[in-house]
């Protein structure tokens, strides 16, 4: 498998001058742990993640060192830490020069990068432009797809996959972090819904694509205000059956 087969395509991004508060709110609302940072031309310039918010003056978690240790740390590092802990814009806290991959990067190489660099997400690039992102959650979903015992895709499946993606991504209600798996005409939809009405719309859109035999719903609903999380009826039924069997 390669990066383009599991990456999330509807990537939520911020700019370097986005406020820390806005970026943190976006991460909470969309249940994501990191955001690519792009410039006015859409060029990737950094990554901001949940770890960048651990040491913040707003919540009193900034570093407090004894004076002697502060001397050993040195003024340069202390100044960097001050900016990171008190800066008001994403550019002050983001990691620059992020590790990236291409759409054709094998998952084995991608995972090796994540382990070596100790990172949780890798932007996917095409000709210098951000086209997707792979996170540990996406890798987990790939493993889950195997659990559904889906055989290898055919050439026709790739065409179905591409047509479904185009149909859904063109819609205003397209699920967040959308993933589409197609095997022998059987479609599996994964992603996050913020409006339950989009579930049926996504299923209908997939069924309308020529060659589709079945559509399985693995879309989960998340209320952006309360954080309430609801699995699809199909996945809940499968889990209940598994627990009963055990």
Structure description:
The structure is a single chain. This protein is an alpha/beta fold and about 250 residues long. The protein is built from ten helices and eleven strands. A hairpin with a 2-residue loop joins strand 8 and strand 9. The protein is elongated, with a radius of gyration of 21 Å. The two termini are about 30 Å apart. The model has no long low-confidence stretch (mean pLDDT about 85).
SSE diagram, text form:
Blueprint: H1 3-6, E1 14-15, H2 20-29, E2 34-38, E3 44-49, H3 67-73, H4 75-86, H5 90-93, E4 95-96, E5 101-102, H6 107-117, E6 121-126, E7 129-135, H7 136-147, H8 155-169, E8 176-183, E9 186-193, H9 197-207, E10 214-222, E11 229-230, H10 233-245
Essential attributes:
10 helices, alpha/beta, four-stranded mixed beta sheet, 11 strands, 246 residues
Q: How far from one another are the termini?
A: 32 Å
Quick one: how many beta strands?
11
Rg from Cα: 21 Å
Strand order of the largest sheet: 1-2-3-4
Shape: elongated
Structural class comes to alpha/beta
Write down the secondary-structure element order. Answer: HEHEEHHHEEHEEHHEEHEEH
Q: Note the beta-strand portion.
A: 15-25%
What's the short story on this structure?
By secondary structure, this protein is α/β, with parallel strands linked by helices. The chain is 40% helix and 23% strand. The two termini are 32 Å apart.
């Amino acid at each position: 498998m390669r990066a383009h087969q599991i990456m999330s395509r509807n990537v939520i991004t911020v700019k370097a001058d986005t406020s820390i508060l806005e970026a943190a709110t976006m991460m909470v609302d969309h249940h994501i742990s990191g955001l690519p940072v792009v410039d006015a031309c859409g060029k990737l310039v950094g990554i901001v993640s949940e770890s960048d918010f651990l040491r913040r003056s707003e919540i009193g978690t900034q570093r407090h060192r004894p004076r002697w240790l502060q001397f050993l740390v040195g003024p340069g590092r202390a100044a960097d830490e001050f900016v990171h802990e008190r800066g008001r814009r994403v550019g002050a806290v983001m990691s620059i020069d992020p590790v990236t991959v291409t759409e054709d990067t094998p998952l084995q190489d991608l995972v090796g990068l994540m382990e070596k660099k100790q990172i949780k997400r890798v932007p996917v690039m095409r000709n210098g432009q951000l086209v997707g992102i792979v996170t540990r959650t996406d890798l987990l979903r790939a493993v889950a797809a195997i659990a559904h015992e889906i055989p290898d895709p055919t050439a026709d499946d790739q065409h179905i996959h591409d047509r479904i993606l185009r149909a859904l991504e063109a819609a205003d209600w397209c699920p967040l972090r959308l993933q589409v798996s197609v095997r022998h005409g059987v479609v599996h939809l994964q992603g996050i819904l913020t409006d339950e009405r989009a579930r049926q719309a996504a299923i209908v859109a997939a069924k309308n694509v020529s060659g589709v035999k079945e559509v399985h719903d693995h879309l989960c609903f998340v209320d952006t205000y309360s954080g309430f999380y609801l699995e699809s009826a199909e996945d809940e039924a499968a889990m209940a059956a598994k627990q009963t069997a055990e």
